[in-house]
Amino acid sequence: MTALALIMLTLVGVGGSIVALTGDPKRQAVTLSVYGLLLTVLFMVLQAPDVALSQFAVGSAIVPLMVLLTVRITSGRRR
């Protein structure tokens, strides 16, 4: 395993911990998007461009957007 792959694995581990420890759902959606970008770079380093493209579309854009929309809808119902 190359040094770049080990660095990326470490960053992905730290990023996942940050996402899990973030309390505010809005901030967690943003950190989830950054985590998706870290995973995308990791997959590119591991020479899996098809998986990286899917991760970029789903993990960095669609899932955080769905989380933000859900938070907005549920916070509107609480009032």
UniProtKB/TrEMBL annotation:
InterPro entries: MrpA_C/MbhD. It is a multi-pass membrane protein. The chain crosses the membrane at residues 6-22, 29-46, 52-71. It is found in: Cell membrane. Pfam families: MbhD (PF13244). Keywords: Cell membrane, Membrane, Transmembrane, Transmembrane helix. Residues 14-73 form the MrpA C-terminal/MbhD domain. GO terms for cellular component: plasma membrane. This is MrpA C-terminal/MbhD domain-containing protein. It comes from Amycolatopsis taiwanensis.
